[in-house]
Amino acid sequence: MGKKSIYIGLITVMIIVVGGLVFFKFTNKKSQINHNQVSNQFSLPSAISNNDLLETFGSTSTEILNNQQLEQNSAQPQEKLYTLEEVAQHNSKESCWTVIRDRVYDLTQWIDKHPGGSDKISALCGKDGTQAFENKHGGEEKPEKTLEQFEIGKLKQ
Ligand code: HEM
Question: Does the pTM of the predicted model rise above 0.70?
Answer without folding.
Answer: no
